[in-house]
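lol ok so funny story. i was supposed to be doing the assay writeup but got distracted and ended up predicting the structure for this chain instead. priorities right. anyway since i did it might as well share w the group, maybe its usefull for someone
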Amino acid sequence: MKLGVVGGAGLLGSTSAFLAGMKGYLEEIKLLDVKENLVKNHVMDMAQAIYSSSDTKVTFAQYKDLSDCGAILITASLPERKVANRLEYLWDNMNIIKPVCESIRENCPHQPVIINATNPVDIFNYIIWKELGWDRKKIVGFNGNDTYRLKWAASIVTGKPFSDIDGFAIGEHGNGQINLYDKMTCGGEPLGLTGDEIEKIESITANFFSEMNALNSGRTSGWTSAVNIESIIEAVAKDSGRVLECSAVLEGEYGLKDVSLGIPVAVGAEGIKEYRLPELTEEQAQRLEKVSEAMKEIIREARSA
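and the output, tada:
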């Protein structure tokens, strides 16, 4: 499979491309960015770096060159700045995403899988779906850091190995994240977290983004994001059906519609193969509905602007 990366000069685009390139399962990675000098630098450097361990080609691209890509990763955005939550990036990036969608629609009639990592991911995932007019299962939003950090925090708090812990966060990639503590397992058995442990994990996951942004470094979580974005790319390229937390457009799942939210889905060559919906408690369902309504209101504002 060939992968196109829109925003290939940026942190998320370049790190994700490099990690996928090192693994060698892609035929070609095409990097595209308005910063042509920087993205061409990445192409030269990355192609040389992976040469000894991978047959994947890395090339500079324009939109017309994406016509044979099986998937396109969108990471295009304005530079990172200090924000309280990811929703503040909405108006920064609105004028970027719509022209990106127009260019993809014009040059990719074969409708490749879209992997969206532009924040706020859930809002833009829905907008991209509406702008492209493709099957909703083709539009896969990157929310994997939420589940990853839930498992990471649970490992820190309990002392149990990260690799043994399983579970999911759902909802918004942001303040509306819902950690499904009652569904978490360790080695296939219920993790059985205490109230005190849950409180500590909730604090870690809820405050991580604001603590990182308080550093005012102008940088986001590039390495962590690359690990989890690459897992989506690999699932698409290998048609693996791996179950990952992704932002998915909902049209009846959990009784919700006209919104995109993070849920577990099986990912393959055509995007979302299956929605794997964990059973929710009444409280979790109510929280998800509340998050959905908040997201829909923002979507309405964004699309009418």
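The first helix runs from residue 11 to 23. The chain has a mean pLDDT of 94.
back to the writeup now i swear
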